[in-house]
Amino acid sequence: MEDFTPQEIAKALRLLRYAKGWTGRQVERESGVAANTFTAYQAMRRRPSLATVERLLIAMGCTWESLDLARALLREVNALDGCGATTVEIAGDGEREVQARLDQLQHSLASLRLAFKKLRK
Q: Where are the domains of the chain?
């Protein structure tokens, strides 16, 4: 598995927490990681150890694969954001490229929704 940057870990953990519908207090209760510490991880003010990331993932009913899926979705959103999809007019091949990116993002979102449905059970 490709290495995660600290920023990717922070954003992916935040996304997984949101998907789970949990507050910081719920993460604290289930993982034993203090809510303010988890908030610091999400804000990239502190860097969790791999063991702590794993403990957080397990507490949320996730795996490293879940974290990787969340990272992939975030990368898709960032790539889409940078390709000009928010502009009103897109000429020629650019329009097809944006539509292809949107299709990829919808596929990624559908996959992520399925994964998160499993998490909530």
A: 6-120
